[in-house]
Design a protein that fits this description.
Distance between the termini: 82 Å
Strand content: under 5%
Radius of gyration: 26 Å
Helix content: 55-70%
């Protein structure tokens, strides 16, 4: 941790982040520009001093409310199975999966090489199936 104290804006950001859990909203609430709030929110979370203060404050809150990570996981698991609304069940499972590291962070490349997919599909076909697919033989004999 550096020797520089947190700025007033950083303190407001931490207060807002504790309240909202959303870096962009917290940056706006702390006084950052609407145009740069997303970047500033993300940047603040990476600053060592801000992250350390945030972790310390979150730890105090967890202790005050006697909440452990196991408690949260159990509650999310329960909500993911029994919440009355499907959207709530999906969100609980999403949060649980995020916590357990089941979903990759950051950019995910979803481009699929269509040529490879087609070739893989064709490789499993018989000659007769390939001829039918190509329109060379409809499977009904000569004609």
């Amino acid at each position: 941790m550096s020797d520089r104290p947190l700025t007033e804006r950083q303190r407001r950001f931490i207060d807002a982040y504790i309240e909202t859990g959303n870096a962009t909203k917290s940056a706006i609430m702390a006084g950052y520009s609407l145009h740069t709030a997303k970047q500033q929110g993300s940047l603040q979370l990476t600053k060592v001093d801000v992250a350390a203060e945030l972790a310390a404050r979150q730890s105090v809150l967890a202790q005050r409310h006697a909440i452990t990570i196991d408690d949260i996981v159990a509650r999310l698991d329960e909500a993911g199975r029994t919440a009355p609304r499907m959207g709530d069940r999906i969100r609980a499972n999403q949060l649980l999966g995020d916590h357990l590291g089941m979903f990759p962070r950051g950019e995910v490349n979803v481009n699929i090489d269509a040529r490879q997919q087609v070739l893989a599909s064709l490789a499993g076909m018989t000659d007769e199936q390939l001829l039918r697919l190509a329109g060379g033989d409809d499977g009904d004999g000569p004609g």
